[in-house]
Amino acid sequence: MAVNTISTRVLDQSAADLAAEHDSRLYNADLAPTTAAQRTWGTYNYIALWFSMSMEVTTYMLASSLIAGGMNWKQAILTILLGNLIVLVPMLLNAHAGAKYGIPFPVFVRASFGTRGANLPAILRAIVACGWFGIQSWLGGQAIAAMLGVLWPQTAQMPLVLWASFLGFWLLNMYVVWRGVESIRFLQSFSAPFMLVMSLTLLFWMLHKAGGFGPMLSAPSRFHTTGSFLRFFFLR
Length: 236
Description:
11 helices; 3 domains; mainly alpha
């Protein structure tokens, strides 16, 4: 009887400690590591994610701005490739713990910043994410407004239509985010093949307008010295 009473008290105390731990500032459901059963993303999902991040409007805008600034197509592609490779290394290093053990980034950085100091890189990462989300939403809103301008030309010069398109695109993204990671995985499973088809369609349309690959690939660089190229490269 005494042994059972002691065991019951130990279990009750463990449950209380666990509840207190769950209520602490260092642990909650969002910071808990994901189990193997919760990791539902497969190879196709990661390929779709990579493809969606690569074949996007901002990449096209960056390449076109580099060419408009004076680079030829080789210099523009190599510049974008170099930038992506530089970002890829720290991204993979930061993502390794999460991919292998399911540890979220705010918890992972506690090893180097401490339990309180980890809030700083987590907040900085959130600020960058908010800024990038705003940029993407604005570009998406501009795209919707441009399509509406083609269908209904009278809306092309109406700022209200542009802002409504921005807010509509923002709300659509917030709905997907609110539904969780699974909704993003489901959406990308269909959006990646659609983006591939539309990208090829856009490529053939540009080839038709430009008269083939020749005029597109033969445009020379306007930088005749290494110094002028590097000034544009670093200041851009």
